[in-house]
């Protein structure tokens, strides 16, 4: 019996953008009955789920003959994504809210809602692929065919149960091919641009956003060099991240970067570029996809940032929820709070949160 005879109904998460619109069209072309849903995620100004985004999604759904609904997940988004974002900055680390949104909202709460509504599949416009390993029986997450658009890095947190119910119809397509499909179908958003910044901080001023949200004022402190000499004043630790060069307000003869943030001392340490390199990292909150655990040290390719080129390393699982990564060559500006994701070719082995 075919999969479509067993799993017939698909809920498509439609952001109002071209990618999720084409994902919906492709699922319909494959014979799946679908409905579209747009998530209302943030109460204030946002680069996603605005009224115009909702209208674009509704317009596309109507043109495809699909029902379309808006689901209000603002409280859940605030709890799992926005607060985590703020608490991570307050702890001196740098969060990745897209991963937390995928982990807690899109592929957890929305997938649960889909099941409650008797929909078996959750469809998104992510550029990634899923396949079942015939030997192990595990559901594997793979890079997209178009590596320039690949989003597997922000999906490493998905579980076996979530991968089983998730579909990524764009995984074998390039962005140009996706736009061509949208143009052929005369979608209203065929030429719509993409947002690169964090959706709920549309102006990119994270410090201002955090202060307005919390009502707190984060104290100024000393900017120091590697010898501990005071060379300036910072405007609150939440406004700085490892590797940052711009906006430091310090005059220096050579380029300097944020190398260390100390919560205890309320200091920012600046250093030359060569001081930013590390040979290893530790990670927590790990999620393994390709296997249950790493039984021995494993040669892998690794990314510590979304747009970083993969780097060769040895990965070792140090306990149930921890990893150690040792790189062949030192890596620049490894940042706590970001994700480390391991690959074997196109296959995502898993990853965790950098300590």
Summarize the structure.
The protein has 355 residues and is of the alpha/beta class. It is 26% helix and 29% strand.
CATH superfamily of the largest domain: HUPs
What class do helices, strands and sheet pairing give?
alpha/beta
Average pLDDT taken over every residue:
94
Distance linking N and C termini: 47 Å
Number of strands: 17
How do the SSEs run, as a string of H and E?
HEHEHEHHEEEHEHHEEEEEEEEEE
Query: Biggest sheet, in brief?
Result: 6 strands, antiparallel, barrel
Rough outline? globular
**Would you tell me which CATH topology of the largest domain applies?**
Rossmann fold
For the biggest β-sheet, the strand order reads 12-15-14-13-16-17
CATH class bucket of the largest domain:
Alpha Beta
| Low confidence ranges | 1-5
Helix percentage range: 25-40%
Number of domains: 3
C-alpha-based Rg, rounded: 22 Å
Beta-strand content estimate = 25-35%
Oligomer: single chain
Using the 3D structure, state the CATH architecture of the largest domain.
3-Layer(aba) Sandwich
Number of helices: 8
Description:
The chain has 355 residues and is α/β, with parallel strands linked by helices. The chain has three domains: 7-184, 3-Layer(aba) Sandwich (Rossmann fold); 220-271, Adenine nucleotide alpha hydrolases-like domains (SH3 type barrels), CATH 2.30.30.280; 277-354, Translation factors (Elongation Factor Tu (Ef-tu), domain 3, Beta Barrel), CATH 2.40.30. The chain contains eight helices and 17 strands. The chain has a six-stranded antiparallel beta barrel. A five-stranded parallel beta sheet has the order 3-2-1-4-7, with helices on both faces. Helix 2 crosses helix 7 (175-184) and helix 4 (74-90) packs antiparallel against helix 5 (97-116). The chain is globular and about 65 Å long. Residues 1-5 have low confidence and may be disordered.
């Amino acid at each position: 019996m075919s999969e479509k005879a067993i799993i017939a109904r698909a809920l498509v998460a439609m952001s109002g953008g071209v990618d999720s619109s084409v994902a919906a069209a492709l699922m319909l072309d494959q014979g799946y009955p679908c409905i579209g849903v747009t998530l209302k995620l943030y109460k204030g100004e946002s680069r996603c789920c605005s009224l115009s985004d909702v209208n674009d999604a509704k317009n596309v759904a109507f043109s495809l003959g699909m029902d379309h609904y808006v689901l209000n997940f603002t409280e859940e988004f605030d709890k799992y994504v926005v607060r985590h974002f703020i608490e991570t900055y307050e702890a001196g680390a740098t969060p990745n809210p897209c991963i937390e949104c995928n982990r807690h909202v899109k592929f957890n709460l929305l997938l649960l809602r889909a099941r409650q509504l008797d929909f078996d599949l959750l469809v998104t416009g992510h550029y990634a692929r899923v396949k079942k390993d015939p030997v192990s029986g595990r559901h594997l997450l793979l890079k997209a065919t178009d590596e320039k658009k690949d989003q597997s890095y922000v999906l490493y947190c998905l579980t076996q149960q979530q991968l089983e119910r998730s579909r990524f119809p764009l995984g074998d397509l390039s962005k140009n091919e996706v736009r061509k499909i949208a143009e052929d179908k005369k979608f209203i958003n065929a030429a719509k641009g993409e947002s690169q910044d964090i959706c709920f901080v549309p102006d990119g001023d994270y410090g201002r956003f955090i202060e307005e949200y919390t009502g707190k004022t984060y104290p100024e402190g000393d900017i120091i060099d590697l010898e501990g000499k005071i060379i300036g004043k910072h405007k609150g630790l939440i406004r700085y991240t490892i590797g940052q060069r711009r906006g430091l307000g310090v005059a220096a003869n050579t380029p300097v970067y944020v190398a260390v943030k100390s919560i205890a001392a309320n200091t920012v340490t600046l250093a030359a570029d060569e001081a930013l390199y590390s040979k290893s990292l530790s990670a927590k909150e790990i999620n393994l996809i390709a296997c249950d655990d790493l039984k021995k040290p494993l040669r892998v390719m690794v990314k510590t940032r979304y747009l970083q080129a993969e780097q060769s390393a040895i990965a070792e699982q140090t306990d149930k929820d921890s990893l150690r990564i040792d790189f062949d060559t030192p890596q620049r500006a490894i940042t706590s709070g970001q994700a480390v994701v391991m690959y074997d070719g196109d296959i995502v082995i898993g990853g965790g949160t950098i300590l």
